[in-house]
Amino acid sequence: MTTFFNLGNNESLSNYSWNDIVRPATEGRERAPLEKENFRPEDTEETEIFIRELVQNSLDAKDRDDSRFNNQPVFISIKYVDIDDNFKSVYTQLFPKTLKEWLTQSGDIDEKYKRTFKALVISDYGTHGLKDEDWKKYFYGSGKGNKSSKTNKSLGSANQGKVAIWALSNIWTIFCKSHTTEEKIKGQGLCLMSEVVELDDEKNRRTCDAYFEKEGDPFLDDKEIKILEKTFELKERDNNDYGTDFILLEAIPNDYAFIIQAILKNWAIPISENQISFDVGGTQINQENIIKLLDENKKYLGDITSEYINFCIESRKKN
Questions:
Q1: Could you identify which of 92, 117, 127, 296 might form a hypothetical disulfide with 61, taking C-beta atoms 3.0 to 4.6 angstroms apart as the criterion?
Q2: Residues of 165-193 as b/e, b for ≥16 C-beta within 10 angstroms?
Q3: Smallest Cα–Cα separation from 233: which of 82, 130, 76, 89?
Q4: Which CATH number is 151's domain given?
Q5: Is the pLDDT of residue 159 over 90?
Q6: Domain that holds residue 144
Q7: So what's the pLDDT on residue 150?
C-alpha cells in the first residue's frame, strides 16, 4: 500500500511517499519491536543510555586513518526545533494523516493526538556518515538479535545501538539525511509501530515498520536538501562535510541540562582528549571548557569530578 503526498509547491518533498508493509495473515505471527520496550525514555537514567549509544555510534563512524578528517574531533550538535509556520506543510508531509491513522491503529497514539510540530535534531560531523552497510543495518537490521536487558543496559546484543534515539520521538519516527565518504547524500524516514495490525479484509496484516522513501533510490537532490535544511534548521554542509542529521519528529521534551550532565558523566575523558565535542542547545562542550563545566555540575556527577578527570589524563600520559 502506498500513499503519495504532493504539496504542489516549491517546499514539497513530492518524490517521497510513506509506504507500509502488508503481508498475508497466513504467513504466521510477526514480532512486536523490541526497541519499544528497551528505549522508552522516562528519566535521566534513560537520557544517559541515549547519550552513550548516540556518541558511541558517532565515534564508531569516524575513519581515524582517513586524511580527509585531519584527526579533528567528532562534533555532535543536539537541539530542539519548533517548526516555523512557513514549513509546517513540509512537516505535515513527513507526519501526514495516513501515518497518524496507522499509529492510532497500532495503539501508539490516541485518535485525538495533535501534532506538536517539534523536532529533535541530532547532527554529527567528522564521521563517514551512514555508508551503504550502515544504512542497511540502521533501517533494516534492528531487533533481530537476542532480546537485551533493560536492567543491565546491554543494548548491543539486539543490534539496537543505532536506533536508541528513536525513543526520543513520541511517534518513534525519524528521518535521516546522511552525507557519506562514498560521495552520496541519502535520505529516508522510518516509523516503528508497536503492534502488528489486522486489516479490515482479515486476510492481511500491517507490520510494525513503515518507510518514508523514494521509489528506486534514497538519494537526495539539491532541492530536497535545501527544504530539509530550512525546515529543520540544519547546517548547510559542503562537499567534504561528512556526517548524518537525525531528525526525530514529535520530539519528547528533555531539559538540555539533563543532556549536558549525561554527556559529562559518560564522555568527559574523550572530550578532554579532544576526541569529541558538542553543542547542546547552544552550550558548547569541548576540551577548552570541560573542567569548568565539570565544576559547575559537580553536584550532579557523583565521582566524575574535575580532579578525577585530571588524574586520569595524567595517568594516561605516564603510560
A1: 127
A2: bbbbbbbbbbbbbbbbbeebbbbbbbbbb
A3: 82
A4: 3.30.565
A5: no
A6: 2-254
A7: 33
